[in-house]
Specification:
Blueprint lengths: L4 H21 L7 E3 L6 E3 H17 L4 E4 L14 E8 L1 H5 L6 E8 L2 E9 L4 E6 L4 E4 L5 E3 L14 E4 L8 H18 L7 E3 L4 H10 L4 E7 L1 H14 L2 E3 L13 E6 L6 H12 L6
Parallel strand pairs: 3-4, 10-11, 10-12
Antiparallel strand pairs: 1-2, 4-5, 5-6, 6-7, 7-8, 8-9, 12-14, 13-14
Bound molecules: D-MYO-inositol-1-phosphate (IPD).
Length: 290
């Protein structure tokens, strides 16, 4: 039963919906917000409660699988070849404390370091994205039916007409922050001066939701340097199953450490994905080796 990937996905959908109701009952005004490293890096007791709930559900049902969660993660833990659930109980914690409804629960199952099952759920909007490797990616329509992704797969026309989702991470210094700044200012300046390179930049505050939007084809690409495995594990599977590509230092699988990674996601397209990646790096002027 442990290898029944479709069954696992169905179970994960049940779990995220239950976890979603915990999030919905929390009142942002009465939240205890704890700062981790700086004002941008925060956690609430709801993050911890939701992770505890998900961890209990998953480890009881799949006792042989490993579990990595944002709130219980200890530096030095690595992703191994073992089936591993990688969980962000609340992706978009800053949105959550501001009652900005781009918040999700993200559960990925990684097998042999490959994103294999992914479920992302935004309880505030009842938005759900899911995928199982080899079985396609889907999103929930307002009428309750699951719709196959992508919704848009027209050829990519390069950076110039592109709408790009960018996340900042919570670093406010160091190489990840500097690279994010460089990507943002390079693209933003050109967007502001007549769209020489990009049409628009979007920063929604949840990497998982942003990548799911790329999977759907609703944004052309996503960029972040410094995403953690729990921000991307589920959405990566959804993106890949929809026909999008994730480009980073180690395409397709993770190697330790699981942090400080750069991610460029490109939407499904009948052509132009690789050219898009080449153009992106030539404009940013950085190498891709780390
Ligand atoms: C964060 C969000 C944010 C991204 C950060 C993540 P969290 O997740 O996805 O958009 O920029 O890198 O850590 O802390 O809200 O779970």
């Amino acid at each position: 039963a442990d290898n029944d990937l479709l069954g696992i996905c169905t179970y994960l959908v049940e779990v995220v919906k239950e976890a979603g109701s915990i999030i919905l009952t929390a009142q942002p005004t009465s939240l205890t917000v704890t700062t981790k490293r700086n004002t941008a890096d925060i956690v609430t007791e709801t993050d911890q409660a939701v992770e505890g709930f998900i961890c209990e559900r998953l480890t009881k049902r799949y006792p042989t699988f490993a579990f990595i969660g944002e709130e219980s993660y200890k530096a030095g833990v690595a992703i191994t070849d073992r089936p591993t659930f990688i969980v962000d109980p609340i992706d978009g914690t800053s949105n959550f404390v501001h009652a900005f409804p781009a918040v999700c629960i993200s559960i990925g199952l990684v097998i042999g370091k490959q994103p294999t099952v992914g479920v992302v759920y935004n309880p505030f909007r009842e938005e759900l994205w899911s995928a199982v490797k080899g079985h396609g990616a889907f999103t929930l329509r307002p009428n309750g039916e699951m719709q196959k992704l992508p919704l848009v797969s027209a050829p990519l026309q390069g950076l110039r007409p592109a709408c790009i989702g960018i996340e900042w991470g919570s670093d406010r210094e160091g190489p990840n922050f500097e690279l994010n700044l460089k990507v943002f200012t390079t693209l933003a300046r050109t967007a502001a001066t007549g769209g020489r390179f990009v049409n628009s930049l979007r920063c929604i505050g949840s990497a998982a939701i942003a990548i799911c939007r790329v999977a759907a084809g609703q944004q052309d690409a996503f960029w972040e340097c410094g995403s953690w495995a729990w921000d991307v594990a589920a959405a990566w599977c959804i993106l890949a199953e929809a026909g999008g590509i994730m480009v980073d230092g180690h395409p397709g699988e993770w190697h330790p450490p699981i942090d400080n990674r750069r991610y460029l996601a490109v939407r499904p397209a009948t052509r132009g994905q690789r050219e898009f990646v080449e153009e992106f790096w030539s404009v940013i002027g950085d190498d891709r080796s780390t």
